[in-house]
Amino acid sequence: MIIAIEGIDGAGKNTLVSQLRKELNIPVEVLAFPRYEDSIHAQLAQEALYGRMGDLTSSAYAMATLFALDRHGAKQQLEEASTSSNLLILDRYVASNAAYSAARLGDDAVMDWVFDLEFGRLGLPKPDLQIYLATEVGIAAQRASSREAQDASREKDQYEKDGGLQAATAAAYARLAEANWAGQWIAAVDKGIIIDKVLDLVGE
To answer: Entry's Pfam families (predicted)?
Structure first.
């Protein structure tokens, strides 16, 4: 089973992942995207987000393609999880590409393009459940700033610094969740509610 946790920067995704690992009494693996330590495509995207790849970030499609290729590099692990009795929790997955791209372009049509690219051409498995951690944008921004202040290695990238982009991405995530894009969604702020619903799903 694959469960993807989605949300804007500072939403608390990593905290939710840790809480789920403690609550679930089955084998759990965790994979975070982008895979900056393991994937050349993720590393190039990161370089671009810190202004070291010229005008690459000006193209939403180019950035989305790099992030998609990063996930394609983990395809074997994803496919094994989709047919295993174990649980793979993803800290971001395909929906993050759809949400950020739609927010950057101001056009939800790119969501279909992302769907076709990642689930179609690249053949990535769809998640069994997608969770949108709908943290209020201002609170998420405060958390991201606090994280940056406490850890010099967590300097904000171009996406994280753009408050307007974060707000637009949150709205795009909400639309994806409402439409059950690429499968079942849970959208909530309260982590306890999310954990209870995941426990119910895993129990089934």
So the answer is: Thymidylate_kin
Question: Positive or negative, the Cα torsion across 107, 186, 166, 157?
Answer: negative
**Sign of the dihedral through C-alpha 48, 54, 60, 62:** negative
Neighbouring residues of 51: CB distance < 8 A, sequence distance ≥ 6: 57, 158
CB 49 within 8 A of CB 159: yes
Are 176 and 99 in contact by the 8 Å Cβ rule? The answer is: yes
pLDDT at 25: 84
Cα(14)–Cα(68) distance, integer angstroms: 21
Question: Cα separation of 108 and 122, whole Å?
Answer: 21
How far, in Å, CA of 85 to CA of 200, rounded?
16
Q: pTM, whole model, 2 decimals?
A: 0.92
